[in-house]
Amino acid sequence: MDNRPIGVFDSGLGGLTAVKELATLLPGEDIVYFGDTARIPYGNRSRETIMRYAEEDIWFLLSKNVKYILAACGTVSSTYPAERAAKLSVPYLGVVGATAQAAAQASQSGRIGIIGTKATVNSGSYAKFIQTLRPDAEITAIACPLFVPVIEAGRIARDDLITTTLAKEYLAPLKEAGVDTLILGCTHYPIITDIIGDVMGPDVTLINSGREGAHCVHQHLGTEDMLSEKTEGGSLSFYVSDSPDSFWEIGKLFLGEGLEGPVEQVRF
Questions:
Q1: Residue from 19, 50, 73, 95 carrying the catalytic annotation
Q2: CA distance linking residue 91 with residue 93, whole number of Å
Q3: pTM above 0.85?
Q4: Is 144 a catalytic residue?
Q5: Using CA atoms, how far apart are residues 66 and 260, in angstroms rounded to an integer?
Q6: Where is average pLDDT lowest: 111-115, 170-174, 196-200, 264-268?
Q7: What gap in Å lies between CA 148 and CA 166, rounded to an integer?
Q8: Which domains does the chain have, with CATH numbers?
Q9: Judging by beta carbons within 10 Å of its beta carbon (0-12, 13-18, 19+), is residue 231 exposed, middle or buried?
Q10: Predicted pLDDT of residue 239
Q11: Residue from 186, 200, 207, 266 carrying the catalytic annotation
């Protein structure tokens, strides 16, 4: 047993989708979340900058004595090298591997779509993972840089004209390619699952990266005998790098009702 908290980080608040899944799967676990809200988005940054930000995010979580780190950020997961992750003092998981495995298993035709930030798509990380599992896969990857800002602006209603118009434009090449499985390669994107699903149609399976990451953490902790001795009553602690004043206004989009905890600002 290990009663230390689980650490989760993202460039903003999208990683709260993974926190929600973890809190549901593991209600006895304490969770520490860091959202780098002062420096979002990571997806348009250089590789060197993303690496520096990731190291700082990881250092912060380690300072909170976490037992496990989930990088709930597709951009970091696509960029942070496995050899560096292996040298950390606690287990580390990026959402990319878990999500790619789920997509490879779900696809019937092998035609798999990926949407994410520019950095995630340009890295080719999802495609590399998928092709090791499904060498026959036909992959179509599309960057959707405007999804994050419109989601954080609250434009998430199923009939929102702006977000629906963006989705139709971004997803058109995926529909043309005939994908039967679509990876939501940014943890913000599940918030607009209804819009994406309406555009893609009922025959396309949507893979939620936050959910898949949380399921992998659950499995790893159980396998390594690192679960908390508590089975309920886990605490949530939230940290952000920008002002926490608007945290709950946006955070509830990702967490829903009923999941709350203290919010503090961190300055690097």
A1: 73
A2: 7
A3: yes
A4: no
A5: 19
A6: 264-268
A7: 11
A8: 6-94+211-265 (3.40.50.1860), 96-209 (3.40.50.1860)
A9: exposed
A10: 97
A11: 186
